[in-house]
Structure formats: structure tokens, C-alpha cells
Design goal:
The complex is a heterodimer. By secondary structure, chain A is of the alpha/beta class. Chain A is built from 5 helices and 7 strands; from the N terminus they run αβββαβαβαββα. Chain A has helices at about 5-25, 65-85, 100-110, 120-125, 155-165, and strands at about 40, 45-50, 55-60, 90-95, 115, 135-140, 145-150. Classes of the chains: A alpha/beta, B alpha/beta.
């Protein structure tokens, strides 16, 4: 097979990834409006969605043992530093079974955004977190505008965040 | 452009190899697909012991009907739970382990659980192959699931 033919096959494979991701999203029953929550924060203070009302929020369900999740965290830290003043807020919800590894991880990776321990209830409210990583992009008016899984590209996530930050308020 | 295409294809091949290596921790003949397990559950008289070696929060949202929670093998305590659960079982007991926490190539749980059971002498251990995660490869297919416990 020639290199150009190989490249065509590769491109075909890559174009199938978003389709698989979209199929996953359709099956999840994701709510239209981000459900409110109050969760135990790993620094001792509760973490609520309401505290960040009016901001563009990226809500990330993750875990310390999840390799793809771990690779995303430095990018999220960077995004929080870069866009925080424009009204962007990262929130991490850990699906670890205990907070100890999460505390260590947060310190090691210098996570500059709130991290809470997840519960089955909050996972259910968001349509079920039956695989990680899983993140939801929430607009300033509380609508869930997009969700991302392990097949999604972080450049696309950042692009979507920038677009929402620059967008006019939804009527 | 020719050089770029070579780089892209090489990168893709590298990713496939890494995936294959990660999956190779469990011999291919010891994998069972979701469809095969479904057939087993629907037709076999004697059901296998199904153990979830993924995180508790995942199990509590949804798990395969009849599966018991062991816990993630990334936590040392789960090894003790696993050893205690199978201690009195005959070595010929059919055991199926699964996780589904994240994509197969990244799962930190199934390979250690498989190795532990094999080292204890169990001869009929199979690992459920969930390519993407439990949601995509089992729950959303409508396969037998207990939710919300």
C-alpha cells in the first residue's frame, strides 16, 4: 500500500472517532441544564456548582488511577490560569474511592481549581459516568453545551471554551 | 507531504502497538467479549462468578447483573478482598473479572486481578474485554445491568 493510500485509511479511521463519541453521548441521557450539586471538597470546603454561577464551566469527571485523565490535568491547570479572569472555571470531580490519593495528586500537579469527591448521585444526575474521562462544558446560563470523552482532543476543548467566553449572553 | 504522512502513519502504528502491548498482559485466549458473556449468562446452567475490579462509584451506578464488587486493583486493600473472596473456591471455578473504568489499553485494574487469580492457581479465569468502557460496551447496549445500588 502506498503512503498516500495509508494516509487515506488513517484519515478514515480518525473521522470515525467523533462518530463513536457522538453515539456515546446520545446514549447517556445527558441533561440539558447542568444539575446543581454540593460535594465534599478535598480541601475541606464544600464544592458547589452554584458558587460559579454565570461562568463558563468545564466540569471534569476524573480519577487519579485513570491514565488519560492524568494527562489532561496539566492542560486544565493551564486553562484555568489563562482564562480564569475572563470568567472561566474548571471544576474537578474525582471518582476515586478515597480522597487520600486525590489530595496527593492535587498537590503534586498544583491543581488551581476546586476538586471534589464524586458520588453515585451526582454521576447519575449527569446521565451516568460509566467511563472516564468525561467532561461537560457548561455555558454561562447553565446549559450543557458539549461533552467530551477520551477520544476528544484538548485543543478542541480549549477552542470551545474560548468560543463560549467570547460569545454574547444567550437570550 | 510525503515525510509528514510517514510521521502520521508511524505515530498511528506506534499507538496501535502500545495498545496491543497493554492488552497483551492478559492472554488473548483468556479474554471474553461482551456478546460471549451475554450468551453465557442467557444459556449456561451454572453461572460463572463475576467480579468487578473497578471503582466503587462505577459499581454503584451500574454493574453487570450478578457481579460482586471487589474494588480497584490500584488500591492494595482490594487484593486482600479478592484473595478472601476466592479463598475457599475450587481452583476450577469459572471466574470472570471486569472493570470498564476507562479505555481497555489504559485500564489499571484487570491485568493485576487476572495475575493474582492465576498465581493462586485458578485455571478458568477470563477477563471481559470492554474496549471503551462499561457504559459503551455493556450498559448502553441494553445488556443485563443492575443500576443504582
Amino acid at each position: 500500500m502506498s503512503w498516500s493510500a495509508s494516509l487515506r485509511v488513517l484519515c478514515l479511521c480518525l473521522t470515525m472517532l467523533p462518530a463513536a463519541s457522538a453515539a456515546f453521548a446520545q446514549q447517556m441521557n445527558t441533561p440539558a441544564i447542568a444539575p446543581p450539586f454540593t460535594l465534599a471538597g478535598i480541601n475541606g470546603s464544600p464544592v458547589t456548582l452554584a458558587a460559579h454561577s454565570g461562568k463558563v464551566i468545564l466540569l471534569d469527571f476524573w480519577a487519579t488511577w485513570c491514565v488519560p485523565c492524568r494527562t489532561e490535568v496539566p492542560r486544565f491547570v493551564s486553562m484555568q490560569a489563562k482564562y480564569g479572569k475572563q470568567g472561566f472555571q474548571m471544576i474537578g470531580i474525582s471518582m476515586d474511592d478515597s480522597p487520600d490519593p486525590v489530595r496527593k495528586f492535587r498537590a503534586r500537579y498544583k491543581m488551581n481549581y476546586p476538586v471534589a469527591m464524586g458520588t453515585p448521585a451526582v454521576a447519575r444526575d449527569y446521565g451516568g459516568v460509566l467511563g472516564l474521562p468525561l467532561a461537560f462544558l457548561i455555558a454561562r446560563d447553565g446549559r450543557i453545551v458539549k461533552q467530551y470523552d477520551s477520544s476528544d482532543n484538548l485543543d478542541q476543548v480549549e477552542h470551545d471554551v474560548r468560543q463560549l467566553l467570547e460569545a454574547r449572553p444567550h437570550p | 507531504m510525503g515525510k509528514l504522512s510517514r510521521v502520521i502513519v508511524s505515530l498511528f502504528v506506534f499507538i496501535l502497538l502500545v495498545t496491543a502491548l497493554a492488552s497483551a498482559q492478559v492472554p488473548k485466549e483468556n479474554l471474553i467479549t461482551a456478546d460471549e458473556l451475554l450468551k453465557t449468562l442467557q444459556t449456561s446452567f451454572s453461572k460463572p462468578l463475576i467480579l468487578s475490579v473497578g471503582p466503587r462509584v462505577l459499581y454503584m451506578q451500574a454493574h453487570i447483573t450478578g457481579a460482586e464488587l471487589i474494588g480497584p486493583m490500584s488500591e492494595p486493600a482490594s487484593f486482600e478482598v479478592l484473595k478472601a473472596r476466592v479463598k475457599k473456591l475450587p481452583k476450577s471455578q469459572e471466574i470472570i473479572i471486569y472493570c470498564g473504568c476507562c479505555p481497555w489499553s489504559h485500564c489499571p485494574n484487570v491485568a493485576p486481578a487476572y495475575k493474582q487469580l492465576r498465581s493462586m492457581g485458578f485455571t478458568k479465569v477470563k477477563v471481559l474485554y470492554l474496549a471503551t468502557n462499561l457504559g459503551v460496551d455493556w450498559v448502553y447496549k441494553g445488556y443485563p445491568t443492575v443500576r443504582g445500588q
